[in-house]
Amino acid sequence: MSSTVPAIAAELRQSRGEPAQAPGFQLGCVTYNLLQNMELETIIETLESTGIAALELRTGQKHGVEPSLGPQERARVRQRFERSKVRLLSYGTTCEFQSPDPEVRRKQIETGKAFVDLAHDTGALGVKVRPNGLPAGVPYETTIKNIAGSIRELAEYGEPKHIEIWMEVHGRNTQEPKTAADILFAVNHRNAGACWNSNPTDVKDGSVQESFRLLGPYVRNAHINELYSSYPWREFFHLLRASGYTRYTLAEVPESKEPERFLRYYKALWQQLVA
User: Fold this and answer.
1) Which of these, 136, 122, 133, lies nearest to 57 by C-alpha position?
2) What's the CA gap between 123 and 102, in Å, rounded?
3) How far apart are CA 238 and CA 244, in angstroms?
4) Are 188 and 153 in contact (CB under 8 A)?
5) Continuous segment of H or E residues that includes residue 269
6) For the chain, which residues score pLDDT lower than 70?
7) pLDDT of the residue at 34
8) Which of 220, 102, 197 has its CA nearest to residue 153?
9) Domains, in order of start, for the chain
10) Chain segment 61-112, per-residue pLDDT in tens
């Protein structure tokens, strides 16, 4: 019964012509995959025209903002966002640390550090990394230690640069909330947190409350996806608001032939669900 109260209150406000209650957080977007084939300027113009507040740049896409950029190019990216209504929030990397091979992990860590430097130089807040499963034949505790140690090293590297490290709740087995929480508990660093990923595995008996209990204290960023799905979006947004979260929920959605039109509809539905 209590879970329906926010929805009922929102409907009453609308029927009276009253403004909806501000959720405390804003809507942003990930370039993966809706904006993957756009140049950076087109991305910014699209988000400005649709009132989308923040952006996560996924590596390997047409925008071209990568660690390979030189100092002048980085400065231009920073200046472009400073002139924009859109915040460059984060970089979405594919850095992953579950390998039992220390040389493989070292390469991934160094790539992550390069993105931390890029984030610092271009004015972003965070760098997203991920676990990507539990390797067969490796003890659970060993893999947790390997992932956590790698993320901790990145968090230590990013802290003096004021760049946070966000672990996406991702990968077979590692997207299980209990496993993700085990990793973050082992990381144990104030500059590292979770990127909530709105996975089906979050949902237990139609609710994300238990998963949010495990991961909520770590959440620094959130990816959301298809808002028409059976995922309990109203409950999730209510839990975010109640936790004091004041950042962004980033739309991570498939490509559209009409991205600007899609984003207008997406934002309208998001506003209804967060009210």
Assistant:
1) 122
2) 31
3) 10
4) no
5) helix 259-274
6) 1-21
7) 98
8) 102
9) 22-274 (3.20.20.150)
10) 999 999 999 999 999 999 999 999 999 999 999 999 999 999 999 999 999 9
